[in-house]
Each structure stands twice: as structure tokens, then as C-alpha cells.
Design brief:
Strand content: 5-15%
CATH superfamily of one domain: Winged helix-like DNA-binding domain superfamily/Winged helix DNA-binding domain
Distance between the termini: 155 Å
Radius of gyration: 45 Å
Helix content: 40-55%
Largest sheet: 3 strands, antiparallel
Shape: elongated
Length: about 250
């Protein structure tokens, strides 16, 4: 099939179906390989942009769909039935975010994260086709698992869930308070060395200090020479005589 004809066929398929058309469907219809189809759709996207068209081809996971450009929403909204505009409450947004970041999650887990019951929010999100059931968990009672749909990706302009913004990592500090891990690391680097005061338990611990022992004092050796000693011979003779008389 010629490239120009393939462009017309792809545009007609995407417009008439009004849904996300899988790559496998386009391969069967056009009888072309996936690489060639992607090249053709990329050229069509560039042509739509250069011609300032009001529509664009968006990729959602392993498929493509035709959609109006976001910058023309203010002109489209008055022409559409306002009753079909999804109105998501804070509870619905919280529940939707939890499911988006935790695919295949149960209602009990959602309730545990939010701290309140999420039954009504789940029903509302299913009515808007933003979430769907994804089987049952291998747990007692076989609870239902939930995941986001392709309509969720289209509504938020995402190709896949991998394009979701990354969440900061949290941890508990020394005071058992929840802090952002990455931000906490940056603060420590900026502050440099931090003096940590000892806790109450640490302050009561006895600290053994080394006992300094005095080194033994060495007595100086005194050398006595006979020449230095004067001996009185007369006294010695008198003492000898007294001994003999006794």
C-alpha cells in the first residue's frame, strides 16, 4: 500500500472508531509492519502540527487515537453538552491517584491508605470509565482488584503509566516524623556537620574515664667512696677497751 493512501486509511479508521486502535489491528488492515506504520503516523503528526490542525494523533500504550488539541478546549466546551463533563471530587482524585500508582489494588488497601471508605469514589470512577476491575486477589474473600483504563491515559495526556510524575521517597526521622528522604539529604549536605545532643538514656549512662597511673619514682643511686668518709680512730679504740673490760 502506498504511503499517502495508508495515511488516509489510518485517519479514517481513527476518526470513525472514536477509540484507541491497537497496533495489531492496523497491521492486519494495512498489511504493513509496525515499524512502517509508526513512521507513517509520525509523519502525520508532524503534518497536523505544521498545518495548525485542530486534531492530533495521540498514542496510548500500544495503540493510537484521534483527539482534539488541548489548546482548543475552551472553544469546544460551549458546543458540547456540559452534563457529560466529568466532575471529580477530592475523594475521587485521591482514589484515582492511588490506583494509578498502585495498579491492581484492592478496595481495602485503598481505604487503608486514605483512612476512609472509598466505595462511592470507586463507583463514580467506574461510571466515568477511568478505572476498571482487573480480576480478583488471591486473598481470603477474593477481593476485587482495580486498575486505570485507557480513558484515564487519554484524559491526562499520558502514553503509559510510566510517564506519571515520580513520587518523593519518605522516611521517619529521629523524632518519628514523616519527612521526604531526598529533601532531608539535601538539608544535611547544606548544613554540614550537625552536633547531636545525647538523649536522656544516653546522658544517664556512666562513662568510664581512664585512670592515670603515676609512674614509679626511681631513687638516684649514691656511690660512696672510702676516701670521702673520715673515721675517728680514737673513738674506735675507746669502744674496744670498754668491751674488753666488761
Amino acid at each position: 500500500m502506498e504511503k499517502e493512501k495508508a495515511k488516509g486509511v489510518i485517519e479514517a479508521i481513527l476518526f470513525s472508531t472514536g477509540r484507541n486502535v491497537k497496533m495489531a489491528e492496523l497491521i492486519n488492515i494495512l498489511e504493513l509492519d509496525s515499524k512502517t506504520i509508526i513512521e507513517i503516523i509520525t509523519e502525520m503528526q508532524d503534518e497536523y502540527t505544521q498545518a495548525n490542525r485542530g486534531i492530533e494523533i495521540v498514542r496510548v500504550e500500544d495503540g493510537f487515537s484521534l483527539a482534539s488539541k488541548k489548546e482548543y478546549y475552551e472553544y469546544l466546551y460551549p458546543a458540547l453538552d456540559k452534563r457529560i463533563k466529568p466532575s471529580l471530587s477530592q475523594a475521587c482524585l485521591e482514589t484515582l491517584a492511588i490506583i494509578a500508582y498502585n495498579s491492581r489494588i484492592t478496595r481495602a488497601d485503598i481505604d487503608a491508605i486514605r483512612g476512609v471508605d472509598s466505595t462511592s469514589a470507586l463507583y463514580r470512577l467506574q461510571d466515568y470509565n477511568l478505572i476498571e476491575k482487573a480480576g480478583k486477589a488471591d486473598l481470603p474473600g477474593r477481593p476485587v482488584l482495580y486498575r486505570t483504563t485507557e480513558d484515564f491515559l487519554k484524559m491526562f495526556g499520558l502514553n503509559s503509566l510510566k510517564e506519571l510524575p515520580k513520587l518523593p521517597r519518605y522516611k521517619l526521622d529521629s523524632n518519628r516524623q514523616l519527612v521526604i528522604d531526598e529533601m532531608n539529604d539535601e538539608v544535611i549536605e547544606d548544613e554540614g556537620e550537625i552536633d547531636i545532643e545525647p538523649t536522656a538514656d544516653e546522658s544517664t549512662e556512666k562513662v568510664e574515664t581512664p585512670v592515670e597511673t603515676e609512674a614509679p619514682i626511681e631513687e638516684p643511686e649514691i656511690e660512696i667512696n672510702e676516701s670521702d668518709i673520715d673515721i675517728d680512730d680514737s673513738n674506735l679504740e675507746e669502744s674496744n677497751e670498754e668491751n674488753n673490760n666488761e
